[in-house]
Each structure stands twice: as C-alpha cells, then as structure tokens.
Design the sequence.
C-alpha cells in the first residue's frame, strides 16, 4: 500500500480578540434577543391601552344615550326605564355588561336655586346615585338655572384588562351627563 503524504496538521489557532469583534455572524439574532422582550411589552401595553380607551368611549356613549332617551320623553314609566337600561347594556358591547352601573336622576331647582332630586332610578346598584330628596350642591348654575329641571345620567364601568401585563388592576371609569328635558319642563316618574 502506497503511503500518501499528508500535509502536516497545523495547530488550531486561537481566535484573535479583534477578529472576534469584527465577526458579524449572529449579531442580528443577538440584537433581536435583546429587543424582542421590549417590543412584546410595548405591543401588549398598546393593546391594553387601546382596549381601555375603547371601554371608556363606550361608557361615555352609554351615559349620554340613556340620559338623552329620558330627556326626550315627558314621563318615565317602569317599562321605559327597563328599556333604557337594556339600551345601555347593548351599547357597552363588546365588553361584558356585568360591571356596568347606570343611574337616571331628575333634578329640580327651585326659585332660589336649591337643587333637589325629584326621582332616581339606579341600575346594578351604583355607589354614587343620589336618592330622592337629596339636595345636590355640585351642579353649576349654567347647567341648571333656578326654577328649571335637568336629567342627570351617571354611569360607571369596572374594566378588567384581558392581558393584565401592564395594567393588572381593575380600572373604574365614571361619566356624568346633564340633559334638559325637551318636551316639558320636567320628566315625571310614573310608577306602574
């Protein structure tokens, strides 16, 4: 058997430190590994913020709409009240309506400007819904002049983020609208 001459094996060279820093293979993967968690956190945060803003806008729509519906009538019956609160539940969609709280209040002002609750209709037990006979001091005169009435619609919503990465706690949104009755001096509450 003939002997084949093989070149002598070279000892493996140690990588030079400057050559190591110049080598760009895999740099993109390392950079992506550093940036990916930040980008993912930013994406989830923006998704949570967008959802919360959408829930808040829906709540504004609920509060203004239920007050507007009542202000367009001369009286509020039990059946009408039930329908108005159903409208609020529909308007909050696609969010669940279980934590939606609504309150309809008729406030009368006497000749001296004393604002008193004529009637109040809560839905889902809102905490800040004034009861009948309560004297309100926080309604500005520009909203409710003396010897007039106004419909006050209040709503609140407890928003829970589906991701809970940036906002793990429940956020409570609240809105209040004042609307003057359109067809009469005040909206009368008629019990059935």
Sequence:
């Amino acid at each position: 058997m003939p002997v084949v001459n093989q070149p002598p094996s070279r000892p493996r060279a140690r990588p030079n430190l400057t050559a190591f820093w110049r080598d760009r293979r895999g740099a993109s993967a390392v950079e992506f590994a550093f940036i990916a968690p930040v980008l993912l956190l930013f994406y989830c945060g923006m998704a949570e913020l967008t959802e919360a803003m959408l829930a808040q806008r829906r709540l504004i729509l609920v509060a203004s709409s239920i007050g507007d519906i009542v202000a367009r009538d001369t009286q509020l019956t039990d059946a009408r009240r039930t329908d108005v609160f159903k409208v609020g539940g529909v308007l909050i969609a696609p969010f669940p309506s279980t934590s939606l709280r609504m309150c309809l209040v008729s406030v009368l002002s006497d000749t001296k400007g004393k604002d008193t609750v004529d009637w109040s209709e809560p839905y889902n037990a809102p905490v800040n819904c004034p009861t009948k006979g309560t004297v309100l001091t926080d309604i500005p005169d520009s909203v409710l002049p003396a010897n007039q009435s106004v419909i006050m619609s209040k709503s609140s919503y407890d928003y829970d983020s589906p991701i809970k990465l940036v906002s793990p706690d429940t956020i409570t949104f609240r809105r209040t609208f004042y609307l003057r009755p359109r067809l009469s001096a005040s909206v009368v509450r008629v019990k059935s």
